[in-house]
Amino acid sequence: MKRACLSFLLFLCFLLPPSFALADDPSAPPWYICGDYQYFLLEDGTAEVGSYSGKETAVDIPDTLDGYAVTQIRTMAFGACSTVTSVTIPNSIRTAEGNPFAFCNNLSTITVSSDHPTLAVIDGVLFDRTSQTLICHPAGKTETEYAVPQGTEQLAELAFCGCVRLTGVSIPDSVTVIGDGAFCQCSGLTALFLPDSVAVIGAYAFERCTGLTQISLPDSLAAIGYGAFEYCESLTGITLPSRLSVIDYALFFDCDGLTEVFIPDSVAEIGDCAFESCGLTVISVPDNVTVIGEDAFCDNPDLTALVGRGSYAEQYCRENGISFVFSDQLD
What we know:
This protein is mainly beta. The protein has a domain at 30-114: Ribonuclease Inhibitor (Leucine-rich repeat, LRR (right-handed beta-alpha superhelix), Alpha-Beta Horseshoe), CATH 3.80.10. The longest helix is centred in the first third of the chain and has 14 residues, at 2-15. It is elongated and about 70 Å long. The protein is built from three helices and 27 strands.
């Protein structure tokens, strides 16, 4: 229960408007209010939209606030604005930090001009053309399948977050980074294939993808952020990439469909709560593992660990009352 509450509080960090997130940070820049908008002044004298409190269904983001040119939008600036169905972005806005419209469950239409200097909408999805980044797949779109265009290099933070209607997403071999929370709460996703180009998966990337039964992780993958598969309760199997060195904090927390996991020899560290509250019956821990965090295998009552004689894993199992057998007994 303590771990689940902590996870929920961490996830709320995505949802809090900037004024709350920065309230106790004396080094944070001052924020201002202009109508329904909260904004920050940047070093170049332009404004960044921090949050929106209006109730309009069709929102035209202004190109100035209090006379300052609006050039940026923060991640989650319009987060959880359930009334918003369409947004028009002015040419003055150059960049968006992650998905500004995550959890706008009824947002179906994003509009930018055809001559916008940096942004583009392709098949209803918002992109940054300069960084080849998919910024926002609107959660209110009704399609169930989506193919990310070839040439896209990054899926931004929260890019598909809350797109519950999507059952399948095709990712091209140009994508190298899947950002923090990119697919979180995409409960309709059932399977996903990640190409060999993907090198990084961010924190909470697939958190609460409760319908996800299988995902293919390429060997090119060097880093998977903490909590990336938290609450993926339908995930029945996972093959971890051979380049992975750390199984991060709460990576598979409450994946109660997982029964067997074989950790590759490349892994040296297993983080706190990494496999807590799964349905594990077997986990193979290689001799290279020298760090296993608190509650890493907690609440897996039927678990038996396969460990090497004299290994750190054996010591951990003995100290934590985890059933184990030696790997060489199975040869």
